[in-house]
Amino acid sequence: MSNSHSPHLHHHFHSLEQQRQASSLGMWVFIAQEIMFFGGLFCGYVVYRNMYPEAFAVASHQLSIGWGGFNTVVLIFSSLTVALAVRSAQLGKKNQIIGWLVATILLGVIFLGVKCIEYSAKWEHHLVPGIHFNYEPHYTDDALHESTGSEHGTDHHPAPAVYPGHVQIFFAFYFAMTGMHALHMIIGIGLMIWIIWLATKDRFAPEYYAPVELFGLYWHFVDVIWIFLFPLLYLIGRHVT
Amino acid sequence: MPDAASTFATQVDIYYYFLIAVTLFFTFAISAALIFLASKYRRRSQLDRPQEVHGNNMLEITWTIIPLILSLVMFFWGAHLYFIYAKSPSDAMEILVTGKQWMWKIQHPNGNREINELHVPLGQPIKLTMTSEDVIHSFFIPAFRIKTDVVPGRYTATWFTPTKTGKYHLFCAEYCGTKHSEMTGSVYVVHPADYETWLSGGGKKESPIDTGKRLFTELGCVTCHHPNSGARGPDLTDIFQHKQLLQNGKEILVDENYLRESILNPQKQIVLGYQPIMPTFKGIVSETQLMQMIAYIKAISQKPEIKDQESDISNLKIEDNQKLPLPLGEDKR
Amino acid sequence: MTEQKHYINAETTVKSWLLTVDHKRIAILYLLSVVGFFILGGTAAILFRLDLMTPQGDLLAHETYNKMFTMHGVMMVFFFLVPVVPAVLGNFLVPIMIGARDVAFPRLNLASWYIFITGGLFALAALVLGGVDTGWTFYTPYSSTYANSNVILTGLGVFVAGFASILTGVNFIVTIHKMRAPGMTWFRLPLFIWAQYATSIIMVLGTPVIAITLLLLVLERAFHIGIFDPALGGDPVLFQHLFWFYSHPAVYIMILPGFGIISELIACFSRKNVFGYSFVAFSSLAIAIIGFFVWGHHMFITSQSIYAGLIFSILSFIIAVPTAVKIFNWTATLYKGSVEFRTPMIYALGFIGLFLVGGLTGLFLSSMGLDVHLHDTYFVVAHFHYVMVGGMVMAFLGGLHFWWPKMFGRTYNQGCAVFTAIVIFIGFNLTFFPQFIVGYLGMPRRYHVYPEEFQIFHILSTGGASVLGFGYLLMFCYLPYSLIKGKKATANPWPATGLEWEQTTSPPPTLNFIHDPVVTEEAYAYAKKNEEFYRQAIPAESKDV
């Protein structure tokens, strides 16, 4: 192979092609691992949602669709910017790589900032699981007055009263899932800073840009997780009253 | 072989012998083959030239199919036993068991209570309804070959028909903390007459059903749950083991766990046509009281028509080789 | 001195070891660490076995006893059995056997060792700060609410160590896919590689689930979020499902690599190719895949639905079939072979015998009706020790003795080693066979005090354990001794086939091969080697054969 003396080739590979394939397969296997990791959480979420659908519906009303939707848009845009960064790497345009990655970092920071706002709101409303958790169950008055109410008796259904414990389970999953997701974003931002540093050192070339490409895969994966989290936590059950 | 003192124990033991036979057969056959081949083809010289044998598909298929068939036989037999274990006969006498770190609390139908001891009459199918006040325990009577986890927050059940008088071990089999190994006790299988005598011993008592009935009034359940139509809550007569249509469109069979949920989390599964107005009794009633209230609700329900052939005591093999001194209430710890 | 340069003497500073990216050196680092954890876990076992000599448990207090068996389980399962073959022998051999210069991601490999050590330090800290008493299974709600010991630290330790195992798995999968030498096709791979590949799949797909489960447990315990607490509406049994979703496949992490080793040993010491190569290879994959769908057999008596139980039970029976296929093929490999009773072969034959018992008794437990009685008794304890110790530890020791000359370039005393192997085999059976009997009699596991009628079995067991312990001690004498005084090993002392024996020195150089190998023949081409050897020898020694 003509490229066997490339400065980008690590000592234990025979060719750049082998090296590229290895690192790309490695990232895919790692992503499989990540899917199982979040899979455990999704599985637990589904089990409890099934057990306490009303409590989960009531609890998801406490989340702000506005902020969640805004964050979804932010993340989708960051997927675009990171894809553009990979594109620039393929073309060997160093300054563009840096530019698009900085944009991605900014979008990531905006996402995390919004997440902080949401988290602090939960904290203020005592919705963080733990000893401070305090959700007031509302036994609706109209339910007490309508002793013979049936499915069709009234066009306005009272929200079913739910137990704080069940609402707390929802928030436990909310914080575990979004927290793990946010942790992945923070790690991603750290990786981007490292890749920008590599780029400034001229480490990438059109025949070697694996770190940028693999990071792109990782970031898309983190976005996809959010694409699942957003409807599961914010949207499903909104229509249930 | 440990004592086999229940109908189930005998059935399990036969299966066990079968598995032992299979195990011994394969262990000896394969060990013999190994020893034979290893010695027959042991290396005699540096210049041995073993032949290349790549494999034989027929042989591979044979030794895939045979273990497969054998394991399917074992599976069906084992599953059959499990179905016996899982389904209690309808005429079983119900005894309530509560596990807590580190003791077993037991209450008999007439109200007699005991701790870490269980008296049962010979030949009578017994159903244990169990729950835990804290962690997961497991109710294990080796002589009866039964074991069932006792899980907080739900009811589990197990049953047996004792066939041999005597004193047997009762263990907690699921690790439950510091004194796990002291969460043990004894099961006394006695003649029905002796059991009656034992029941009549002890001081003033109230059967779980009566206690349940009393609680039903004291806690005010009766104010909503009464047979008049138009009551705020559903009538509870004749609901146990019957189907109920729920508000969310599902149909459920009323069992112990449903009744328990309905007392603790009444909003979770509401019967069609009623409002979610019942408050929770979580923290108000204890595990024991819950069981008593459920016993009462069960008592005011007619038995469903399903009959079980297990209830025929006449074909039971009853052994009575040990005349034990009658353990009465006074030997409670 | 013009000593040959190899990976051990290439550099000698401590720093060169701690910052190495050479997979062989990382394997040695792992070897030292897992041996350390093995000694800790073993010491705990000796202590509680001594204590169990009397029914009242006179030696230890209840709490101490509980902490000892927990430490034994945590150390042995998470810090010894899971990493022992993949991270030690696998790390050393996978690249060499497929003709690569290193694993695909050498730095990740080193990172995995540091992560493992960090996890281990957490677990050690938990121990030093008073121990943990939940059992290695951490069942809720005991572990989340009621236990008064260092559950959080231990849970974090296992959580962290899990990532070491994930990284090793990722590394092996990529290495085996992408780093094979020219000519090394999938069906020329040694069976050890197939087994490592199947194991890596489990490590990558199973470990994250236990990681998240333990994280939820830690959160539950720290913040009381209610996920596993029935008082708050949680489901304690969900923990068991998540836990066993990993921990049952983990059983196969702990045994599949052992299968791989045995295939190598049996072939080498019968001087024959493995009978039914592709059946042995694919049975590993079958076990890895079915292994993900049998976890529920740990919950037959835990109010699981009967129908779920039926599925789990039948799959547990079916997984026995590929396992049986392996055993039959190994036995058939001896047929028309030239069997040599060297130390590794003694371990391999011992493995087959013990694993056979371990596997068959597994059928007792996958059967729903019988598991009702046997669940959580000493029968279970005996069963999984036959699989884990009789299986995996025997296989590991066989492999260690087989590749020892390759790893360290020295040979050990064969007489000592054969004697030790026999002592270990006898000691093992003495320790664990009585536990089958006492288990069927009804002795529950994790019992500190027990009824007197079980004492005789416990005395036998403790006696056996001391023989077993003596066997391990012997090994700790002659193996280190061989490093100093042992004879220099030749490149292929047994002699065996495989790139690690035929294409490189003992010990190998830093980049494994002086010239990158090209593979032209099947694995286990012993017949061809024998023929060559015979032709060379005949003119000189025509007297034989």
What this model shows, in words?
- The complex is a heterotrimer of chains A (241), B (333) and C (545).
- By secondary structure, chain A is mainly alpha-helical.
- Chain A has one domain (45-150, 159-234): Four Helix Bundle (Hemerythrin (Met), subunit A).
- Chain A has helices at residues 16-51, 53-60, 65-91, 94-124, 141-145, 164-200, 210-235.
- In chain A, α1 (16-51) packs across α2 and α3 (65-91) packs antiparallel against α4.
- Chain B contains seven helices and twelve strands.
- Chain B has helices spanning 7-40, 57-86, 192-200, 208-218, 221-224, 256-264, 287-299, and strands at 93-100, 103-107, 113-115, 117-121, 126-132, 137-141, 146-150, 156-160, 166-172, 185-190, 243-245, 251-253.
- In chain B, strands 3-2-1-5-8 form a five-stranded mixed beta sheet, covered by helices on one side. Chain B has a five-stranded mixed beta sheet with strand order 4-10-9-6-7, covered by helices on one side. In chain B, strands 11-12 form a two-stranded antiparallel ribbon.
- In chain B, a hairpin with a 4-residue loop joins β6 (137-141) and β7.
- In chain B, 37% of the residues are buried.
- Chain C has 19 helices and no strands.
- The model of chain C has no long low-confidence stretch (mean pLDDT 91).
- The two termini of chain C are 43 Å apart.
- Chain C has a single domain, classed as Cytochrome C Oxidase, Chain A.
- Chain C has 545 residues and is mainly alpha-helical.
- Chains in contact: A-B, A-C, B-C.
- At the A-B interface, loops of A face loops of B.
